[in-house]
Amino acid sequence: MMEKIPTQTGARDQLMADLKTVIQDAEAWLRHGSSLTGEELKNAKAKFEGAIAGAKEGLANLEVVEKSKAAAKATDVYVKENPWKAVGIGAAVGLVLGMLINRR
Fold first, then answer.
1. pLDDT score at 92
2. What region, left, alpha or beta, does residue 95 occupy, with left being phi > 0 and alpha being psi -120 to 50 degrees?
3. Is pLDDT above 90 for 91?
4. What is the pLDDT of residue 2?
5. 3-state secondary structure string, 9-34?
6. CA geometry: angle at 21 spanning 20 and 22, to 5°?
7. What's the whole-model pTM score?
8. Interacting residues of 88 by C-beta distance below 8 A, sequence separation 6+
9. How confident is residue 3, by pLDDT bands cut at 50, 70 and 90?
10. Contact by Cβ (8 Å): 78, 86
11. Residue 74, number of CB atoms within 10 A of its CB
12. Kindly report the CA angle at 59 between 23 and 5, in degrees rounded to 5?
């Protein structure tokens, strides 16, 4: 089983800040939503939607980073356990790419 790979602290901190902002905005909207009218309501809605979009983007970026690190770790483990297979695969890929480039 693979160990959990830590990601950049800044990315996690930013995501947590974004999520806290979304929660605070949601709570404020629930408390004061009925008293907002017209332009105030539009501004509050736009701010809330922006916070949600930022949190979603941060979460997606964090997931990509974690998956990339997990793939790199798995590749590293495989290469360390099977060095000659890795060399053979690398040589075969290089040969195929060389042939494809030479055809053009």
1. 94
2. alpha
3. yes
4. 43
5. HHHHHHHHHHHHHHHHHHHHHHHHCC
6. 90
7. 0.47
8. none
9. very low
10. yes
11. 11
12. 125
